[in-house]
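pipeline/complex-builder :: batch 7 item 3
reading input block
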Amino acid sequence: MVMRWRFFRQLRVASLRKIEIVESIFDPWKLQQDYQNQSMQGKTDYGATASFIGTMRDFNEGDDVNSMVLEHYPAMTERQLHQIIDEACEQWAVQNTLIVHRVGEILPAEPIVLVAVWSAHRAAAFDACRFLMEALKHRAPFWKKENLVEGSTRWVEKNTAG
Amino acid sequence: MSIKVLYFASLREEIGRASDKIDISDANNGSVQVTQLWMKATGRDSLPDELLVAVNQEYTSIDAFVKDGDEVAFFPPVTGG
């Protein structure tokens, strides 16, 4: 009985999704468009798309930053992002999700993360997109190391408040 | 029992390596607590204030028990996005 319940639960949260970790600069607009074309071909039941793009700032905590290096724990990153998407799908009527995250060396103004959500109505898309982004920041195992303009390097110790 | 231990980010730099393979011969009932594993792997008696722990890529607490073949990761608060 428990097995059966788990089976149905998995079915319920199954939704279109793509998670991608990339090691070089990416164009979030193109990736989102390409993914939508490829994964939602022929679909006409979605009425809302919400997307968030995080880019690298050239300052942090009062210091000018030249570049940064993003490290991650590959297997756990994928696993955590899948769980976060599952949770969003349990709370909102999400039709499709795309998460792209950069690793390696990043320069100011380059995109770090793209979270895009498709749904029938705007509330689900807005709310799920915000939820995914906040959950990613707190649970996905990525770490930033900054190279400051004045020459030193430092690990970012915590997220900004938002 | 043999356990793979991983370190990330500032913790990896402090410890000076990215991973350890820890063999424990005196495990109680085939399992060992994460705190004991930390001490054996790092040689440190104390735990960093904001240490995060994952066993087999799932977050857990330092009080959790691990068994042969588990992958245990120690790391500081995450800062992606």
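note: Residues 74-91 of chain A form the longest helix (18 residues).
queue -> next item
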